[in-house]
Amino acid sequence: MTLSHAFPFRPRKSWGQHFLIDHNIARKIVDLANIASGQNIVEIGPGKGILTGLLLERGARVLAIEIDPQLVDLLHKTFPPSLPFELICMDACRYPYENIRHPYKVVANLPYNISTPLFFRLIEETSYLTEMILMVQKEVADRLIARVGTKQYGALSVIFQSLADIKVAFPVPPQCFRPRPKVSSSVIKVILSKKDSVVLKDNKLFGKVVRASFSHRRKFLINALTDAGFARDMVSKTLHQIGIDPHARAEMLSLHTFTNLANELYGIR
Ligand code: SAM
Q1: In 10 A of CB 88, how many CB atoms?
Q2: Which protein residue's CA is at the shortest distance from atom 18 of ligand 1?
Q3: Residue-wise pLDDT tens digits, 138-159
Q4: What is the pLDDT of residues 103-143, one digit of tens each?
């Protein structure tokens, strides 16, 4: 399944339209998804269909969400209705993933500008999502796998690591795309798994605590949490109980410590 390269098209920066042109990289991405025949795949931003074609060749059932109506037209012409391919023209951040009622994987070369909101949307709202194979900006991949105490360590690292095992599979240089992006990319594999080590009493409260703690990186923890609406005396008591210095900063707190903090705050709300 190949595409007409004669298609006249002006890529839009605002939609992160850097199309993959390297077929080896495309194959390596689809290999990582380990597709069994009939596997449900959600593809975000199929673009001109370089990954879509391979996914269909491997026997996947593909639901693709593309925001650009011109590309949707092209994809309809490329992939005949006989294929197990459903295409929706909309903003992938607004798609109701919670309505998907069967296990599925996400495969995507993500538009850089929506990767972070989309991550939160996908992992916090869906329970049937098992895996994600994603091309992201290298800097985002580094933040996802960052360890406590490093510059890249932040809310994205803590929340993702509480829900998933994340591996950086391989780097992808700018010359593999047209037009070339200014930044390097990485392909990551994210396996969503309830981790035994992370038992949260309230996922939403955990997210709120982590985000609030990192909202002002230079602030002491007690001030950041108080500013986010937690009562000062309650925070102070909790930090003392679990042995955290109220003058600590968020980047020094491990996932384990954030888990304890959120669970303690849950208990005394
Ligand atoms: N998958 C194709 C490839 O690998 O060549 C295209 C990848 S390109 C980096 C990102 C794609 O996502 C573009 O097709 C773009 O139109 C689409 N896109 C951008 N923002 C989107 C959004 N909010 N919802 C759905 N698709 C979006």
Answers
A1: 13
A2: 45
A3: 999 999 999 999 999 999 999 9
A4: 999 999 999 889 988 988 888 777 899 999 999 999 999 99
- Residue 254, Cβ density class (10 Å: 0-12 exposed, 13-18 middle, ≥19 buried): middle
Check pocket membership of 43 for ligand 1, CB cut-off 6 A.
no
Distances in Å between the alpha carbon of 156 and those of 33, 123, 140, 245, 266? 23, 11, 9, 23, 21
At residue 250's C-alpha, the angle toward residues 116 and 189, to 5°, is 35
Q: Whose CA is nearest to atom 11 of ligand 1?
A: 45
Measuring from atom 12 of ligand 1, which residue has the nearest CA?
Answer: 45
Pocket test for ligand 1, best of 68, 78, 94, 180 (most atoms within 8 A of CB): 68
Under 8 Å between Cβ of 124 and 184:
no
pTM of the model as a whole: 0.91
The kind and range of the H/E element at 137 are strand 129-137
Task: Name the residue at shortest CA distance from atom 1 of ligand 1.
Answer: 46
The protein residue with its alpha carbon nearest to ligand 1, atom 19, reads 15
pLDDT of residue 81: 93
Ligand 1 pocket test, pick from 55, 56, 66 with the greatest ligand atom count within 8 Å of Cβ, gives: 66
Q: Give the integer Cα–Cα distance in Å for 101 and 42.
A: 13
Cα torsion angle, 227, 233, 239, 244, sign: positive
| Structural domains of the chain sorted by starting position, each given as residue range(s) with its CATH number in brackets | 13-192 (3.40.50.150), 203-268 (1.10.8.100)
21: which 2 tokens?
């042109």
Q: Point out the ligand 1 atom lying closest to the alpha carbon of residue 177.
A: 5
